[in-house]
Write a structure and sequence with these properties.
With about 210 residues, the protein is an all-alpha fold. Helix content is about 65%, strand content about 0%. It contains 13 helices and no strands. The longest helix has 15 residues, at about 5-15. The N and C termini lie far apart (about 60 Å). About 40% of the residues are buried.
Length: about 210
């Protein structure tokens, strides 16, 4: 049997094995699998939690997913960060506020997808993530354009607390940083009125 067929067979057997699970039992099982010795099991568990983000009790997985941002396997870290973004319910976001330090650290991860997803989660937390603003400003210079876009979006979602740092970023020597800072200020809208003079000067940017 070809390897692809084996994978399909395993998936089908897994579905049958857990067919009678309640949502709470499924979440509990996936939380346990996030700590499995096999990185593939951890990765699939994180992905599954993101896919069932509407399920009752899934917010109970948030603390373990946050710990999983430190996983030694880059794919596991990516999927854990993605799951946190997808879960994004008010309850999950409230729990995520305690994760801001871990998410700040994830902004410096060597994997660009982890950095981008960490920025997105910080943006979803909003004003509660204001302690991340200095590191997010630095991340506007990330080598990956996708990360820079996520960072700009996150700063815009954090709101007025990010305005002073964003105004300063409008003077950055890197044009991408200036552009993304301007985009973030645009998202803040009325809360960024103090940035108007600096934005007018930016119009003269060569």
């Amino acid at each position: 049997m070809k390897s692809g067929s084996w994978i399909l067979l395993i998936c089908l057997l897994s579905l049958l094995a857990y067919a009678d699970e309640t949502q709470e039992q499924q979440v509990e099982r996936l939380i346990k699998q996030l700590q499995d010795a096999d990185s593939d099991v951890r990765s699939n568990a994180a992905m599954a939690l993101g896919q069932i983000w509407e399920s009752e009790g899934v917010k109970d997985a948030v603390p373990t997913l946050i710990q999983t941002l430190q996983d030694k396997n880059p794919e596991v870290r990516v999927r854990a960060a993605s799951a946190l973004v997808q879960i994004g319910t008010p309850e999950a976001l409230k729990a995520l506020k305690a994760a801001v330090p871990a998410l700040i650290q994830a902004l410096q991860d060597r994997d660009k997808d982890v950095r981008a997803n960490a920025a997105s989660v910080l943006g979803m937390i909003g004003e509660g993530a204001k302690d991340a603003v200095p590191v997010l400003i630095q991340a506007l210079q990330d080598e990956d354009s996708g990360v820079r876009q996520s960072v700009a979006w996150a700063l815009g979602q954090i709101g007025k607390d990010a305005v002073p740092a964003l105004i300063q970023a409008l003077q950055d020597e890197h044009v991408d940083v200036r552009v993304n800072a301007a985009k973030a200020l645009g998202q803040i809208r009325s809360g960024a009125k103090d940035a108007v003079p600096a934005l007018i000067l930016l119009l003269k940017d060569k």
